[in-house]
Amino acid sequence: MRISGLSERTGLPVATLKYYLREGLVPPGRATSPNQARYDDTHVERVRLIRALTEVGGLDLATVDRVLSSIDGPDVERLGVLGSAQRALLGAEFVEYDPATADEPPTSRARDWVTRRGWQVDLHDPVLDALDRAWDACEASLVGFDEGKLGVYADAAERIAQIDVESVPPDPHAAVRQVVLGTVLVDALLVALRRLAQQHVAVSRHGDG
Amino acid sequence: MRISGLSERTGLPVATLKYYLREGLVPPGRATSPNQARYDDTHVERVRLIRALTEVGGLDLATVDRVLSSIDGPDVERLGVLGSAQRALLGAEFVEYDPATADEPPTSRARDWVTRRGWQVDLHDPVLDALDRAWDACEASLVGFDEGKLGVYADAAERIAQIDVESVPPDPHAAVRQVVLGTVLVDALLVALRRLAQQHVAVSRHGDG
């Protein structure tokens, strides 16, 4: 199909598609003349993926670029599928992090807590700093937030992670794709489900709409 | 304290604090001369809250403004605490929505699904459109995503919502504050916990780091 057909199939204006092509987010089509190219279903799928990541996942185009590179990249086995996928979402500086040459991990309340809980995670992971910040903010701002409540949230997160990890395919490239997209898209799904479940639980308990 | 003291206590530059004061995000101090004012602990708490909402919750200042207005506002009982708090996070257009005068709700797959599940939620709620979009995107992009998997995610969301709702204080103003902050800050907490739980579950299952 021509770029106008790609526009029809994906619902995005031709100008936006040309921008994605210039930025390398979408691979070039097969050139049929100096000014024309043909696109196929792989282009449709790629554009839909970019739409999902931006519109559902709320990612900016720079992050989409990193995510797509991690899906396409050849180096997925080196760092482990989950680590490389999660780092692609966090930022370029973490993609280069190599556990083999890293220093002693920093100490923090979140690191103590995951160790006590028995979670086998990389203590260098910057997600632990995000957990420290979120924990501090919850404790400072919310009535009755304590480590017990954090533990119940962590139980629910573990349940969610079991479903996440269950469906990861064995092939490393397919696995990275699944983990990256699952992380972004299921975050959006969980946010919506949590809002709805809150309404339902509040109505069931207090009987007010 | 002077504005320099407020800066020390909150870790934000004086220029940023002056911007928040001009924008009305922080209430004015008590004027001691035409060019000077005194601030107290309520100002420290407000600035820390803005930091938590922007830095931990990832909100932009326009959304922070809406969230703070919903915490401070007098109209919290009219729409119900959860609804008004959730709408403050979604956008100004939804704050004005009044269930009493609304038309028939639209139909969609997410609306059918919550009805079958027995969740008592407002079928006009735009969160259901967000759920439709996230569901479509997960189905199109993820291996093995189906309604069964959505159901297990929903079970986890219900568990989380029970903890959320348990600690909501009875006073409506305190309740809105708790729900709004809990929604934003616990979303950030859950994202971090899910990433860590994924690593732990993956390591436990496959034995690779």
TrEMBL record, chains A, B:
Residues 1-70 form the HTH merR-type domain. Keywords: DNA-binding. The keyword tRNA-binding does not apply. InterPro entries: DNA-bd_dom_put_sf, MerR-type_HTH_dom, MerR_fam. It comes from the Bacteria. CDD domains: HTH_MerR-like_sg5. SUPFAM superfamilies: Putative DNA-binding domain (SSF46955). This is MerR family transcriptional regulator. It comes from Mobilicoccus caccae.
